[in-house]
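Annex B. Sample input.
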Amino acid sequence: MRLADRCARHMSERRKHTRETYNDSIEFVVLEETDDGLDRKHAHGTIVDVSSVGIGLQTHYALQEGHVVEWDDKHEKGKLHIALVKWSRKIEDFYRAGLLFI
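Annex B, continued. Sample output.
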């Protein structure tokens, strides 16, 4: 078994919630705390996987652990999603992040 396959298998065994591969564009707002309050930064990216408790996101925006992200549901008008960035890693020229719904 290849190393990449063993790592993926190990990660899936550690997860409490099953993730499904997904591929959809997303426009979102990042809420960043500043000395003057909250700053709202508009950004976009791609949802790469989903679970019942969160999403995996790929974006050029430099997401950081602890950021709060919000976006409107494309499929259910009037529904707002809010999530906490649990982890983020820079991979070449983009960021890959895990978001937990709150």
